[in-house]
Inverse folding.
């Protein structure tokens, strides 16, 4: 009965891993990936998670058919390398998602790269040369060396995960994202701990006694990791995509001639290369025209206030609520007014790369994916 439960857990976990990969393929197809580092790290993390699951599913299926486990050197090496790089890519995602200083980011990346290289080399030697069959040692001497390597690899990965979590946790602005990332990190750490115990038990030839107590929790952890990652992908990418699609559909349904007059100049510019949608005229508060959001931006203006004053108050409230820096607040204002990246760079005397970095931070903190969404967010901000 327990064997069947474990087998079906592997199937469920693999299914969720495939859902995550399909989500990533959809994001790549519609070019809604936003931050490339963020997209790449999550893509590799999901591939590693799904590959580990299907590898273990094959092991378990073979055991149910034949009655015992078996493996080859290539499969053992593939197992350990996927196992190592899964948390490494998770750490890369946490770095890309957070807003930590560049110096701290470089330090974490360097530490992660060094540990990944050392652990991958140790795993290649240990699992390729010191083991045979299903993770059994070639000799007593190799068994001791393999145990040391196994403890080092798992302890290093757990330390790396919690080191990243401790540094970046407060820099991830969205509360729900912090919770989801923490759940994945803890599940990965527990998976490392349990797999370390099982591997050491096999090398010490106590595997049968371990199996009697059904301590193989790997499919459960993989299922949790895959499921939470799918939720995270939806929360971070698809929910914003659906909101943008809904806003576009509302705009398309406005009868011709009933909307605002076309706006010309910088106010009408929307950077299509960044937003992924066709440029459309977007009027702003203070232009003397309707915002066209359907929310009636000018209707929210209290009596006696000038539109420019209202715009400033709305931007200030958003900056305060979403913890924008002074520079990000200024970039937000210029972006809202329709300026392109080169125009913002020229106005603030900063480089294009700096503008892109500020815009990335603003989009992350405001949980939007396009300039259209940003403008709708500002225009819909309620004033007291």
């Amino acid at each position: 009965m327990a064997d069947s439960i474990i087998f079906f857990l592997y199937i469920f976990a693999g299914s969720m891993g495939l859902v995550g990969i399909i989500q990533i393929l959809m994001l790549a197809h519609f070019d809604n990936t936003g931050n490339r580092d963020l997209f790449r790290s999550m893509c590799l993390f999901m591939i590693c998670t799904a590959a580990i699951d299907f590898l273990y599913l094959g092991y378990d299926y073979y055991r149910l058919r034949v009655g015992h486990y078996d493996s080859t050197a290539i499969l053992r090496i593939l197992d350990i390398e996927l196992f190592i790089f899964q948390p490494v890519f998770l750490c890369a995602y946490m770095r890309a998602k957070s807003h930590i200083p560049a110096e701290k980011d470089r330090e974490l990346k360097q530490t992660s790269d060094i540990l990944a290289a050392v652990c991958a080399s140790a795993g290649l030697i240990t699992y390729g040369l010191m083991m045979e069959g299903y993770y059994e040692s070639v000799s007593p001497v190799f068994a001791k060396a393999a145990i040391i390597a196994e403890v080092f690899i798992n302890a290093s990965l757990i330390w790396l995960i919690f080191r990243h979590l401790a540094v970046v946790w407060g820099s991830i602005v969205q509360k729900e994202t912090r919770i989801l990332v923490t759940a994945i990190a803890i599940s990965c750490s527990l998976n490392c701990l349990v797999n370390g115990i099982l591997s050491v038990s096999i090398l010490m030839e106590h595997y049968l006694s371990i199996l009697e107590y059904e301590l193989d929790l790997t499919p459960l952890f993989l299922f949790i990791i895959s499921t939470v990652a799918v939720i995270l992908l939806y929360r971070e990418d698809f929910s914003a995509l659906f909101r943008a699609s809904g806003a576009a559909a509302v705009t398309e349904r406005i009868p011709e001639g009933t909307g605002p007059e076309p706006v010309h100049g910088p106010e009408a510019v929307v950077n299509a290369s960044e937003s992924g949608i066709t440029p459309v005229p977007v009027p702003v508060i203070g232009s003397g025209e309707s915002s066209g959001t359907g929310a009636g931006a000018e209707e929210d203006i209290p009596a006696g206030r000038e539109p420019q004053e209202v715009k400033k108050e709305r931007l200030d409230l958003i900056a305060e609520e979403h913890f924008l820096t002074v520079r990000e607040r200024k970039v937000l204002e210029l972006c809202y007014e329709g300026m392109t990246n080169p125009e913002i760079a020229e106005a603030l005397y900063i480089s294009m790369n700096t503008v892109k970095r500020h815009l990335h931070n603003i989009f992350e903190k405001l949980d939007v994916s396009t300039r259209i969404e940003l403008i709708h967010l500002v225009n819909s901000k309620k004033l007291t």
